[in-house]
Amino acid sequence: MPTERSVTNIGIIGHGAIGSVVAAKLAGGQVPGAELAGVCTRKPITDSPAPWVSCGDLIQSCDLIVEVAGHQAVQDHATEILDRGRDLLIVSTGALADPQLCERIAAAGPGHLLLCPGALGGTDILEAVARASSTIEVRLTTTKQPGGLVRPWMDAQLRDRLKGGCERVVVFEGTAGEAAGRFPASANVAATLALAVKSWEAVRVVVIGDPAAEMTRHAVEVRSAIGNYRFEVANITSPQNPTTSLVVPYAVLACVTRYTRSQSPIFC
Questions:
Q1: What is the DSSP letter of 241?
Q2: Residue 151 in 3-state DSSP?
Q3: Do 180 and 94 contact (CB within 8 A), yes or no?
């Protein structure tokens, strides 16, 4: 049986729609055995329940650092955190679509990398299928409100269609790796699927903007040599950020809870 730590010091990078909820819940004692040691953001903040500190200070004082700040935060801090012996839980899994970053992280340590599935479920069955079958095809169809999908790379016609919010628009079709690059704030589910099956090419992604969408939906279809699977999640979006599902901070808290109990580098 795994042993439970007496106190696990937790640091958070980010204090937006996800980080602010995680910080408040940890400070409120909702994860037994976990203590919020500090919060790191690009600019100083005063509304955090724990001191604002630098990433270096988090590394000095924390057992586990939780990233909830986006792809750039993973690029900037992941290897240093791991190299200095701290464990790192990331939510912005899309950052790992960068092969050079993946190589650096794979070579880093002795700290361990943990991945939070965020708005997605079913990673356990996907990991199992990937182990058992050499052939696997995954199709993800993500449907969101159009306004939150507007990106600088889009042409004027597509941006206008999305901003107008009057029609259902297929915004993107491609691989999980391509989706992570095109939608860094919205494609972590695609990245999580790719990491679960260990292939960025096996996961095909369709992103749809639909003004009738009351929730963000992710429909996952899997075909493999040992079976076919289909599941769907529909999440209410955060009132603070329409690109974030309201469930994500609670998925982070679940990961932190498992970490304090097991001390294991698991795919949460």
A1: -
A2: coil
A3: yes
pLDDT band at 66 (very low <50, low <70, confident <90, very high): very high
What's the CA gap between 207 and 169, in Å, rounded?
Answer: 9
Q: What is d(CA 245, CA 96) in angstroms, rounded to the nearest whole number?
A: 20
Residues 6+ positions from 24 with CB-CB distance below 8 Å: 49
Q: How many CB atoms lie within 10 A of CB 106?
A: 12
- CA distances to 123, 134, 168, 251 from 29, in Å: 28, 44, 43, 16
Contact at 8 Å (CB) between 13 and 74? no
Q: Is 218 a catalytic residue?
A: yes
Length of the chain: 268
- Is the CB of residue 209 less than 8 Å from the CB of residue 169? yes
Residue 137 pairs in a beta bridge with 223
In this structure, which amino acid lies at residue 126? L
Distance CA 29, CA 253 (A): 11
Write the DSSP symbol of residue 50.
S
Query: In percent, how much of the chain has pLDDT > 70?
Result: 96
- Per-residue pLDDT, 5: 52
Model confidence, pTM:
0.86
Q: Which of 228, 224, 225, 245 is nearest to 236 (CA)?
A: 245
Residue linked to tokens 């937790």: 10
Task: Name the average pLDDT for the chain.
Answer: 88
Q: Measured between alpha carbons, how far is residue 46 from residues 18, 62, 100, 177 in Å?
A: 17, 20, 36, 37
**CA distance linking residue 226 with residue 67, whole number of Å:** 35
State residue 207's pLDDT score.
Answer: 93
Q: Which residues, in sequence order, are bridge partners of residue 221?
A: 139, 230
| Residue 159, token pair as written in the block | 């941006």
